[in-house]
């Protein structure tokens, strides 16, 4: 057999063996013995669970939190503007943007010491908890705007006056929206007297004459100073003589020094003046410190701001506006309700807490927000539970439970624990 044929046969046998080995797993398996099958426990495959279980460790990326949803805009909105009239006059626009008529009660709080002289659209003056206000009861048609106006008289026409206005529901309890405006007296026209020419004013003439005198004296002094060295040189090195001049020793002049008895009193006087000035400056700075005001630097964020009812006051994150404060009559525990507008002026959502909102009493004590009463006044909604979205605004009542006959004198509102907050004086 040739060598080439023998080699091909060996290769063919090797390939056939590989094919047999590859075909063995495909052969049907032998049936197990019956006794062995009885002894072997039957295992059932676990059914796949409907939902995968939670991982024991948190995922690598945090689960994104749900963004704060801004509160819906009220169907009734209010806008207040002041007019440039000699007497305080305000224009109130109440708009119903809904598709159904709405019954509303509009209240405008009058500034202290003022009274209404003109009221349009059937409004009337009422007194609630020691505060005068103008009240309208309106029925707003769908998608309509109603304009109201009031004219006031005041004993201080030269000072600014702020008169906020709010629209409530038909019962006058839940606020829809509030707005405020400040009236400023128009500047009186000042008649300008004819101006005198510059060359006819005595002060200008005297100043010019004084300048000429100063320039003349300065010129004379410079002329004499330049001439003095030349005259001294001519007097010392004059024309020579036949006989030389005898050498005269120059007399050295001692520089005069001020007397010690003059230096000591002068130094004592300067020292006394310095100490006195420093003491006077320190005393004025210490006297200017207001011990009743809260700190505006250091650990506090932002600067503390104070104002009155109806004035927008801004702190680090929120802008607070107190539109109205009313208290129930009585001597025991009674509720004082403040209608407050809150606007988030920061670029991110912010949370605030009821315990940080305080009402200060005349005796110096304070009470925090009654959260249960506040929730009831907001129709069961917890206004402190959800953070406020950036740029959002809401008007809501805050309820404080106080004891005694005197109402709160000041409200303190803040967004966070370390925020300087705002303080509102209650008339």
From TrEMBL:
<feature type="signal peptide">
    <location>
        <begin position="1"/>
        <end position="22"/>
    </location>
</feature>
<feature type="transmembrane region" description="Helical">
    <location>
        <begin position="261"/>
        <end position="282"/>
    </location>
</feature>
<feature type="transmembrane region" description="Helical">
    <location>
        <begin position="203"/>
        <end position="223"/>
    </location>
</feature>
<feature type="compositionally biased region" description="Polar residues">
    <location>
        <begin position="96"/>
        <end position="107"/>
    </location>
</feature>
<feature type="compositionally biased region" description="Low complexity">
    <location>
        <begin position="116"/>
        <end position="128"/>
    </location>
</feature>
<protein>
    <recommendedName>
        <fullName>DUF4352 domain-containing protein</fullName>
    </recommendedName>
</protein>
<keyword id="KW-0472">Membrane</keyword>
<keyword id="KW-0732">Signal</keyword>
<feature type="region of interest" description="Disordered">
    <location>
        <begin position="96"/>
        <end position="128"/>
    </location>
</feature>
<keyword id="KW-1133">Transmembrane helix</keyword>
<keyword id="KW-0812">Transmembrane</keyword>
<feature type="region of interest" description="Disordered">
    <location>
        <begin position="35"/>
        <end position="73"/>
    </location>
</feature>
């Amino acid at each position: 057999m040739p060598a080439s044929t023998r080699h091909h046969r060996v290769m063919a046998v090797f390939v056939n063996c590989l094919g047999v080995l590859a075909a063995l797993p495909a052969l049907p398996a032998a049936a197990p013995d019956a006794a062995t099958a009885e002894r072997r426990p039957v295992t059932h495959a676990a059914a796949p669970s409907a939902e995968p279980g939670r991982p024991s460790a948190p995922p690598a990326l945090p689960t994104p939190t749900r963004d704060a949803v801004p509160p819906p805009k009220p169907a009734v909105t209010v806008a207040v503007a002041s007019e440039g009239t000699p007497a305080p006059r305000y224009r109130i626009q109440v708009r119903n943007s809904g598709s159904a008529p709405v019954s509303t009660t509009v209240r405008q709080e009058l500034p202290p010491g003022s009274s209404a002289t003109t009221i349009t659209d059937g409004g009337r003056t009422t007194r609630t908890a020691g505060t005068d206000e103008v009240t309208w009861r309106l029925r707003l048609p769908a998608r309509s705007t109603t304009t109201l106006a009031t004219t006031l008289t005041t004993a201080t026409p030269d000072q600014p006056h702020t008169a906020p206005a709010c629209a409530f529901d038909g019962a006058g309890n839940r606020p829809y929206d509030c707005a405020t405006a400040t009236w400023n007296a128009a500047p009186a026209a000042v008649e300008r007297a004819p101006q005198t020419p510059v060359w006819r004013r005595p002060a200008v003439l005297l100043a010019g004459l004084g300048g000429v005198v100063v320039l003349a004296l300065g010129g004379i002094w410079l002329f004499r100073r330049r001439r003095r060295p030349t005259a001294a040189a001519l007097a010392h090195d004059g024309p020579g003589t036949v006989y030389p001049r005898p050498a005269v020793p120059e007399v050295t002049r001692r520089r005069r020094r001020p007397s010690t008895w003059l230096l000591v009193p002068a130094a004592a006087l300067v020292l006394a003046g310095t100490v006195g000035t420093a003491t006077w400056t320190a005393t004025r700075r210490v006297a200017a410190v207001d011990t009743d005001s809260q700190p505006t630097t250091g650990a506090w964020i932002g600067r503390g701001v104070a104002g009155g009812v109806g004035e927008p006051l801004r702190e680090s994150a929120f802008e607070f506006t107190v539109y109205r404060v009313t208290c129930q009559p009585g001597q025991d525990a009674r509720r004082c309700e403040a209608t407050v507008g809150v606007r988030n002026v920061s670029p991110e959502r912010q949370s605030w807490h009821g315990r940080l909102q305080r009402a200060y009493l005349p005796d110096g004590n304070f009470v925090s927000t009654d959260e249960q009463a506040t929730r009831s006044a907001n129709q069961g909604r917890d206004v402190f539970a959800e953070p406020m979205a950036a740029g959002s605004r809401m008007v809501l009542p805050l309820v404080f439970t106080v004891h005694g006959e005197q109402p709160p004198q000041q409200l303190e509102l803040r967004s966070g624990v370390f925020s300087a907050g705002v303080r509102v004086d209650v008339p």
